[in-house]
Design goal:
Layout: H1 2-14, H2 17-31, H3 38-52, H4 65-76, H5 83-109
Length: 110
Amino acid sequence: MKKFVIKIPTLKKKYHPVETAALIHKELVDIHPFVDGNGRTARLLMNLSLFQAGFTITIIPPVLRADYIALIKQSQTGKKDASGFINFISAMVYESTKGHLRLLKQLNRK
């Protein structure tokens, strides 16, 4: 965990904030430090990183949970390529941002 925490500033300097958030999420899940709650903690850290970079809080809808888990597993096996997972998180950030913008537009109309 110490290595993970030390690595975060390097990720933030090297990658786009959304990619950084996805990699922070993936790294924590890879370490799997807790008996329970690793995914929830990873999503919380992902959202903290996004929020600190000025992005909206991002959710992964329950209907996409199977895809989310499959992409995490895919990033942990074979070539350990995280690009599919990063693309998925990027899409979730985009969709969450669109949802927030729709809400703000509705509030402005009132």
